[in-house]
């Protein structure tokens, strides 16, 4: 006879069952923090759902609830959806139902963790099955993600616990004042919003640092938790276009807190305000609440925050796409591609990258474009991919290859593809090498009276593209600058300027820049190199446009063979440093000062002047006028000392750069048509007349300009031009009003005082002792005088590994043979020695101080070492602190406090470098053993003081560091037993035995088995005593389980030679009190820290 399905039989049997207490009645037994419980027993549903939000560690609470249920003797089952396919989920449920029916179990609990999104049919079947079983005295605990909530719509009356529901009430704060003051608890509560995951680390921090009363200090330990809580503020969905627009404005940096409050509610604005108050913690010098959200999205220090926000942005793709559209409208191409790469899928990222190829190159994001071309499929984005490939060939200097590939570019369709094609054509014209130019290398004094001459492109094109491009390439500049194709016009102007420079007509070239006004990075980089030597432009264009951090020595040598300037031929390295500065190393003044002082100390005044002029160009195009003024002043001073700098070409270079300073402010206004100056164009009018030497206008210029005030923004420009440009300076001074000259003189004196103060500050900085701090615990990081060493400073990968290798080596010293053998084991000694020399130079340069020196890395007598008086290493500090704890005599309470403080210094294992794996692993193993011994020493002290929570925390950290250490397992088992968690002790021992057998092939030692057996026997005796006191003659289920566990352990133990001897040993062990055992083990750890001892480390028992 066919049996009915298990679920149907359970439904029929449950229909006649009386109602009993369900799982929601045990919610108040979940302890979210010490002495603080959820306390939500008003619910009466057999289904409890924890919503997996960032501020809710739902799986922990679900397991606590299951533990409270199983402690009452009810059966508990768990299904982990991350390890169970969706199709087998219903099969597992039916299997558990059959087991419950066969064993006649009462009130079973089924825990389903990490429930992921599923199709509607499966969600409906699962929800209805849970509802039917819940009516038959089944209980369920579910942990679901917000996007998987469709299952809950089919469950009848579930209890849903959100992250914001698990909040510590203010009334419970008095229970945390045992170790810290109430004001500190209030501060922690205010900054953590009462969320347990935020409040717990704050209390631990105050407990370790009781003297810090400043509320902002609590944020130093809340970084990771606050990042998670940001998402909780975004829980309300942003659907309306108005909200999307406000959030997008905030990401652009033009929104206000009012916008973000209206978008996602007041609580989110408060969170951002708190993050603004914590600006020093996030290594932000200054930023206000208006740009807080944009700062979080774009600052490189906050990668973790962007990752957390990215997980939310994936839930709201409309917001992200709208943000990208607005960024592209505002010409923020670099930020747009960042948002696309962080928050969007690969398809959207490719659309943004390939849809704006020339703009990304101009914004310094050429590497992103290279990645997009490599990842794009052949049949997708055909036109955009072809144009991007041609543009990359051009900036790499492979012009002939670019010409050949341009012929295969498809015809443009639509306005956007047409614009890309125009940009590509003029990019090729702007960066065309001199050898391909039809009128290259003509007489440099050749004059052309036609200013708006037409420049026809000589780029070979396909027949269908020639007609489309002919109209644009044959138009003069006045017709091209119509606002339609802005970047194409910038490249067109650059092409015109290049043609003038190739003829040697610098006057017309930069008069063109003054008239057109082109703030293009491509123009700023290539024009400077063009004035030095045009043949070198294409060889370095790729590195500079893409802001590379280095220039290869082979390329410098190739440049030297082709250059005509003898004064640069013998100074490759110095010129390479100047190119590095041009590529972006001058973002920090300290880096520029270091490079300049290094050149001057080597007697290279000429190269130092070139470096300062290059940096001044970069500052001009970034509108940093004051910084450009200071740099040009120093360059002029050095040029007087270096006679070769008076050569004609470099004199033209400096004069041209001086005039470039005003190009960004002309805004494409045609100054040639301005006959009468105004208050806004008076300076530009004067510059144009003076540079073009219109004597008739300059004679009356002073009378015409005296009614206008000199604009403050133009003051640095005129100060430079009036002092450093020879004949041009004289013409300007004669044509300016007296009030302008007086104002310039006062400005010049103020700037000189500023330079003197800057030099004195540098001298004071040099007088202070410098420090290099190396952190090797957790993640590798280095700090010079408190400033992190940027990743771009490491020109060679092995340079960073060399410093890290010295940090983890005992004594921090290596011979040359040891260093070369560790870094390049496969090379012969001669080749490795040459590499070591280059790597050592790169390492010293990366960690050098402001004046260019490096007192941290020393060499001599065939050895390399770190200077101990200047270098501090966190691993050494931790080792020294551990030694003090092991050697000092403390009481148990003092010892526990010292262990807690020292354990906070251990932020993680020693970082392992793949290139020097052996030495890194040795340092990691030694430090890990020391940390485990420290935790065990503290755990024994905590057991003596009966502080079980701290003992568990320390023992658990020791066990997690090395889960095969038997002494760590033993301490953790003792803690579990004293806490009454026998089930956890059994599970921990089983997990340990299984892993020990898999890894080493051994079984646990006899001593550990006897210890666990005595635990179950003692637990059995205590349970039996309780049953006798209650007059119960039957053996409880827990007694049966303990007896079975005891038999199981006894059966798996190794047979000894004499059963009597085992009993005597067990009796001898029982005679020693627990306190005496603890004292003996503490003395043993103090005598031999790091020594595992007999039965304390990896067991030496027989093979299983």
3D architecture notes:
- With 1104 residues, this protein is mainly alpha-helical.
- Among the domains are: 6-165, Rossmann fold (3-Layer(aba) Sandwich), CATH 3.40.50; 170-221; 520-663; 674-768, no CATH class; 780-869, Arc Repressor Mutant, subunit A (Orthogonal Bundle), CATH 1.10.10; 873-1003 and 1080-1104, Tetratricopeptide repeat domain (Serine Threonine Protein Phosphatase 5, Tetratricopeptide repeat, Alpha Horseshoe); 1013-1053, no CATH class.
- 59% of the residues lie in helices and 5% in strands.
- The chain has 53 helices and 14 strands.
- A hairpin with a 2-residue loop joins strand 9 and strand 10.
- The protein is extended and about 110 Å long.
Q: Short summary of the structure?
A:
By secondary structure, the protein is mainly alpha-helical. Among the domains are: about 5-165, Rossmann fold (3-Layer(aba) Sandwich), CATH 3.40.50; about 170-220; about 520-665; about 675-770, no CATH class; about 780-870, Orthogonal Bundle (Arc Repressor Mutant, subunit A); about 875-1005 and about 1080-1104, Serine Threonine Protein Phosphatase 5, Tetratricopeptide repeat (Alpha Horseshoe); about 1015-1055, no CATH class.
């Amino acid at each position: 006879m066919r049996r009915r399905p298990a679920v149907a039989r359970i439904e029929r049997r449950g229909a006649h069952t009386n109602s009993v207490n369900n799982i929601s009645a045990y919610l108040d037994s979940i302890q979210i923090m010490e002495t603080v419980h959820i306390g939500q027993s008003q619910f009466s549903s057999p289904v409890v759902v924890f919503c997996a939000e960032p501020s809710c560690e739902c799986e922990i609470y679900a397991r606590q609830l299951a533990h409270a249920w199983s402690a009452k003797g009810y059966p508990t089952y768990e299904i982990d959806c991350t390890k169970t396919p969706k199709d087998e989920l219903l099969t597992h449920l039916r299997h558990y139902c059959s087991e419950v029916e066969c064993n006649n179990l009462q009130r079973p609990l089924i825990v389903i963790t990490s429930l992921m999104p599923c199709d509607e049919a499966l969600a409906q079947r699962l929800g209805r099955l849970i509802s039917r079983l819940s009516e038959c005295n089944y209980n369920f605990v579910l942990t679901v993600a917000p996007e998987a909530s469709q299952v809950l719509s089919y469950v009848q009356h579930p209890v849903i616990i959100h992250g914001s529901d698990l909040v510590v009430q203010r009334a419970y704060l008095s229970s945390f004042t045992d170790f810290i003051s109430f004001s500190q608890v209030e501060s922690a509560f205010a900054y953590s919003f009462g969320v347990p995951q935020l409040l717990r680390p704050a209390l631990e921090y105050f407990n370790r640092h009781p003297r810090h009363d400043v509320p902002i200090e609590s944020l130093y330990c809340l970084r990771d938790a606050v990042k998670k809580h940001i998402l909780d503020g975004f829980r309300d969905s942003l659907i309306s276009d108005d909200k999307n627009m406000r959030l997008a404005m905030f990401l652009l940096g033009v929104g206000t807190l009012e916008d973000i409050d209206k978008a996602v509610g007041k609580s989110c604005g408060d969170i951002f305000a708190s993050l603004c108050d914590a600006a020093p913690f996030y290594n932000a010098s200054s930023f206000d609440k208006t740009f807080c959200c944009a700062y979080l999205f774009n600052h490189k220090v906050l990668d973790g925050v962007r990752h957390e926000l990215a997980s939310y942005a994936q839930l709201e793709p409309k917001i992200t796409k709208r943000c990208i559209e607005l960024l592209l409208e505002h010409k923020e191409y670099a930020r747009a591609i960042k948002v696309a790469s962080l928050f969007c899928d690969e398809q959207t990222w490719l659309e943004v990258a390939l849809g704006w190829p020339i703009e990304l190159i101009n914004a310094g994001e050429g590497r992103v474009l290279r990645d997009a071309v490599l990842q794009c499929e052949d049949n997708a984005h055909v036109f955009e991919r072809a144009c991007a490939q041609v543009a990359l060939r051009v900036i790499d200097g492979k012009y002939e290859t670019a010409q050949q590939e341009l012929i295969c570019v498809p015809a443009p369709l639509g306005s956007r593809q047409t614009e890309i094609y125009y940009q590509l054509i003029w990019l090729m014209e702007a960066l065309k090498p001199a050898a391909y130019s039809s009128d290259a290398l003509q007489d440099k004094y050749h004059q052309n009276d036609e200013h708006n001459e037409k420049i026809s492109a000589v780029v070979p094109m396909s027949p269908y593209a020639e007609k489309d491009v002919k109209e644009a390439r044959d138009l003069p500049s006045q017709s091209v600058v119509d606002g339609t194709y802005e970047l194409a016009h910038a490249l067109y102007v650059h092409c015109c300027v290049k043609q003038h420079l190739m003829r040697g007509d610098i006057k017309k070239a930069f008069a063109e820049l003054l008239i057109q006004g082109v703030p293009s990075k491509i123009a700023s980089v290539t024009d400077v190199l063009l004035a030095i030597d045009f043949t070198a432009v294409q060889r370095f264009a790729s590195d500079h446009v893409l802001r590379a951090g280095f220039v290869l020595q082979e390329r410098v040598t190739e440049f030297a063979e082709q250059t005509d300037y003898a004064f640069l031929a013998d100074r490759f390295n110095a010129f390479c440093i100047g190119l590095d500065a041009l590529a972006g190393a001058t973002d920090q003044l300290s880096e520029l000062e270091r490079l300049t002082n290094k050149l001057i100390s080597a007697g290279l005044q000429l190269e130092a002047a070139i470096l300062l002029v290059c940096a001044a160009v970069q500052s001009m195009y970034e509108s940093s006028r004051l910084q450009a003024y200071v740099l040009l002043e120093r360059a002029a001073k050095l040029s007087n000392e270096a006679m070769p700098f008076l050569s004609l070409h470099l004199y033209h270079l400096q004069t041209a750069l001086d005039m470039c300073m005003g190009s960004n402010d002309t805004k494409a206004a045609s100054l040639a048509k301005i006959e009468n100056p105004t208050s806004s164009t008076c300076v530009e009018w004067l510059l144009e007349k003076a540079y073009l030497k219109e004597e008739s206008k300059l004679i009356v210029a002073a009378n015409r300009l005296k009614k206008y005030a000199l604009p403050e923004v133009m003051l640095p420009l005129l100060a430079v031009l009036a002092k450093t440009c020879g004949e041009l300076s004289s013409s300007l001074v004669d044509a300016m009003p007296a009030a302008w000259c007086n104002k310039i003189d006062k400005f010049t004196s103020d700037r000189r005082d500023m330079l003197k103060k800057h030099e004195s500050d540098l001298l004071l900085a040099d007088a202070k002792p410098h420090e290099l701090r190396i952190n090797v615990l957790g993640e590798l990081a280095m700090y010079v005088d408190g400033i992190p060493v940027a990743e771009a400073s490491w020109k060679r990968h092995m340079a960073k590994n060399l410093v890290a290798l010295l940090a983890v080596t005992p004594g921090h010293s290596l011979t040359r043979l040891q260093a070369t053998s560790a870094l390049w084991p496969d090379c012969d000694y001669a080749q490795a020695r040459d590499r070591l020399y280059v790597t050592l130079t790169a390492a010293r340069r990366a960690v050098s101080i402001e004046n260019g020196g490096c007192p941290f890395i020393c060499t001599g007598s065939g050895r390399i070492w770190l200077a101990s008086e200047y270098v501090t290493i966190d691993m050494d500090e931790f080792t020294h602190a551990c030694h003090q704890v092991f050697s000092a005599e403390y009481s148990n309470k003092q010892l526990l406090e010292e262990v807690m403080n020292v354990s906070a210094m251990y932020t993680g294992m020693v970082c392992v470098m793949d290139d020097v794996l052996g030495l890194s692993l040795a340092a990691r193993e030694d430090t890990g053993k020391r940390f485990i011994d420290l935790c065990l020493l503290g755990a024994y002290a905590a057991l003596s003081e009966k502080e079980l929570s701290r003992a568990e925390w320390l023992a658990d950290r020791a066990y997690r560091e090395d889960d095969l250490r038997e002494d760590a397992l033993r301490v953790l088992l003792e803690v579990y037993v004293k806490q009454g968690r026998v089930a956890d002790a059994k599970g921990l021992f089983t997990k340990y035995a299984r892993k020990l057998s898999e890894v080493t092939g051994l079984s646990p030692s006899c001593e550990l088995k006897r210890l666990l057996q005595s635990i179950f026997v003692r637990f059995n005796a205590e349970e039996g005593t309780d049953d006798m006191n209650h007059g119960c003659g039957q053996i409880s289920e827990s007694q049966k389980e303990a007896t079975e566990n005891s038999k199981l352990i006894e059966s798996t133990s190794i047979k000894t030679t004499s059963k009597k001897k085992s009993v005597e040993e067990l009796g001898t062990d029982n005679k020693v009190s627990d306190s005496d055992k603890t004292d003996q083990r503490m003395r043993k750890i103090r005598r031999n820290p790091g020594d595992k001892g007999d039965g304390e480390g990896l067991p030496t028992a027989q093979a299983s």
